[in-house]
């Protein structure tokens, strides 16, 4: 049986958080639309299509963030956890984000970016590894939860007393 992590927060706070996230998702969609329109306008005025593709790339990244926010808002508003019962996001999505974070941190560290310190890259590497191994962490937590919910054996061998 999945654990309801929102029980302590309450329905009112969960729904409020869902609506706030939905508002920002809508705002991101507006920003993406503005980026596309600015790209078209820039290409029409300057006759330079290359810069229009830069605007389109930025819009695509913002649309991706908006889609992710919409997904989380929907899960919060409908009180639907992921299939694993622990996270709002599917574990494969967390793993992909972790791989991208790990890749980006290693590249930034290898390139020797002055603005990025070793601590920041190290934190990115650590967070990326945790995200990649998230399904394993969830399986261990589920096993530990199942063990703690099992009744003691009749001979008392499983009791802590």
Question: What is the compact description of this entry?
Answer:
The protein is mostly helical and 161 residues long.
Q: Can you tell me about this structure?
A:
By secondary structure, the protein is an all-alpha fold. The protein is built from five helices and no strands. It starts with 10 loop residues before the first helix and ends in a 12-residue tail after the last helix.
Which consecutive residue ranges, at least 5 long each, have pLDDT under 50? Answer: none
**Span between N and C termini?**
27 Å
Roughly what fraction of the amino acids lie in strands? under 5%
Q: Major sheet: size, sense and barrel closure?
A: none
Summed up, the helix count is: 5
> What is the general shape?
flat
What structural class should be given to the helix and strand makeup? mainly alpha
How many β-strand runs? 0
Mean pLDDT: 79
Radius of gyration over all CA atoms, rounded: 22 Å
Number of domains: 2
Order of helices and strands: HHHHH
Percent range of helical residues: over 70%
Layout of helices and strands:
Layout: H1 11-46, H2 49-78, H3 91-111, H4 118-132, H5 134-149
Helix pairs in contact: 1-2, 3-4
Primary descriptors:
161 residues, mainly alpha, 5 helices
């Amino acid at each position: 049986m999945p654990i309801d992590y929102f029980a302590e927060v309450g329905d009112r706070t969960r729904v409020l958080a869902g609506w706030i996230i939905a508002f920002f998702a809508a705002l991101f969609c507006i920003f993406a639309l503005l980026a596309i329109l600015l790209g078209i306008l820039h290409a029409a005025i300057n006759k330079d299509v290359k810069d229009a593709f830069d605007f389109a790339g930025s819009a695509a990244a913002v649309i991706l963030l908006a889609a992710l926010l919409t997904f989380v808002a929907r899960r919060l508003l409908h009180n639907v956890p992921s299939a694993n019962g622990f996270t709002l996001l599917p574990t494969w999505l967390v793993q992909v984000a972790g791989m991208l974070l790990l890749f980006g941190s290693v590249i930034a560290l290898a390139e020797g970016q002055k603005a990025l310190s070793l601590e920041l890259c190290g934190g990115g590497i650590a967070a990326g590894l945790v995200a990649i191994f998230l399904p394993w962490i969830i399986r261990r937590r589920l096993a530990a939860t199942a063990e703690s919910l099992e009744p003691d054996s009749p001979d008392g061998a499983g009791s802590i007393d």
